[in-house]
Amino acid sequence: MAFASIFCCGKCSDRKEQGKKQPTWRIFSLKELHAATNNFNYDNKLGEGGFGSVYWGQLWDGSQIAVKRLKVWSNKAEMEFAVEVEILARVRHKNLLSLRGYCAEGQERLIVYDYMPNLSLLSHLHGHHSAECLLDWKRRMNIAIGSAEGIAYLHHHATPHIIHRDIKASNVLLDSDFQAQVADFGFAKLIPDGATHVTTRVKGTLGYLAPEYAMLGKASESCDVFSFGILLLELASGKKPIEKLSTATKRIIVDWALPLFCERKLSELADPRLNGKFEEEELNRIIIVALVCTQNLPEKRPTMLEVVDLLKGESKEKLAELENDELFKSQKVADYNDVRPVAEDSYDSISEEKDLKHEVKEIGQDDS
Ligand SMILES: Nc1ncnc2c1ncn2[C@@H]1O[C@H](COP(=O)(O)OP(=O)(O)OP(=O)(O)O)[C@@H](O)[C@H]1O
Ligand SMILES: [Mg+2]
């Protein structure tokens, strides 16, 4: 079977090199997954995304799993499933959610992951766990660095290189130590050697899309860098990527954060739930990195390798240079807002294209 042959190419030994204690991947039977999830019971449902629903389950050995069950079976879904399976089978890194296995029986296509007990960043920032304030500053900083390292691995070390295309808070899962595990490579395509970008239909989630990707469908690593910048702002501030100010007005997080940073109002940028308990130097670093990542011009954005060094405080000179960039001169704020596509307009132009309708999902579609 096609899926089995994809899997047989996977190098399971890579897993050890990344220091992860996990069983190797295997094929699950539908019967076993039915038993584990109580027949895909509604009560076991963790949420729903572009592929279908994700269910919590427990195997006979007591281990907890998350099962992603494709909602529609079509040729397109089969291709996307194969892409995700192939990519996941190859990629192993401490900050990338690895695969436990899959099931392909009859019309059913399911992917099995380890269950992440602390769920996603989305659930802590805006969902079920947001009131518990479990994300103190140290954890946030670790998540920022860890998720950057996971994405940098996809961009620079995986062979061939991988563009994630759907970096967002629900795709950053948290393990029992609150370490980031970047999930969902379903949108990624393998980049052929030498190609600088692949033009394709726009996939991703509103609020995180780089302008050139949203408008021209031009996907490259720098689109992921843009999405990651949005995620950093969200992580530091606790705000959503797009905030509804009223029924008619929406504000994108960058347009809120940039003017505040130009005036160096750092404490206003920090999530109020931190109660002022944050490291100023680290917050400064996160905000500078986030804002340079979310520049309109892709060539002005850093690479993920640079992002990792900047976040770790290992590129102090570069950071100082960036801090003095024109971008952060307050007189530039007006110009910046002029060139940036207004959220409503640019997103309307996406939804008018029929092909994109199913690919672009509203933020907060599932806040669980
Ligand atoms: N291994 C896991 N452990 C715990 N929660 C998970 C796991 N995998 C997914 N989830 C959660 O289940 C929910 C649904 O996930 P799913 O990936 O289907 O949708 P999504 O992340 O919202 O969107 P997308 O389809 O773009 O990834 C999300 O809240 C996600 O964080
Ligand atoms: Mg997801």
TrEMBL record:
Signal sequence residues: none
Alphabetized Pfam families for the sequence: PK_Tyr_Ser-Thr
MF annotations from Gene Ontology: ATP binding; protein serine/threonine kinase activity
Domain Protein kinase, residue spans: 40-319
Chain residues that bind ATP: K68
Stored Gene3D superfamilies: Phosphorylase Kinase, domain 1, Transferase(Phosphotransferase) domain 1
Keywords, comma-separated and alphabetical: ATP-binding, Kinase, Nucleotide-binding, Serine/threonine-protein kinase, Transferase
Entries under InterPro entries matching the protein: CR_Ser/Thr_kinase, Kinase-like_dom_sf, Prot_kinase_dom, Protein_kinase_ATP_BS, Ser-Thr/Tyr_kinase_cat_dom, Ser/Thr_kinase_AS
Highest taxon above the source species: Eukaryota
Database matches in PANTHER family: CYSTEINE-RICH RECEPTOR-LIKE PROTEIN KINASE 3 (PTHR47973)
Family membership noted in the UniProt record: Belongs to the protein kinase superfamily.
Name assigned to this protein: Protein kinase domain-containing protein
Source organism of this protein record: Erythroxylum novogranatense
Lineage, top ranks: Eukaryota, Viridiplantae, Streptophyta, Embryophyta, Tracheophyta
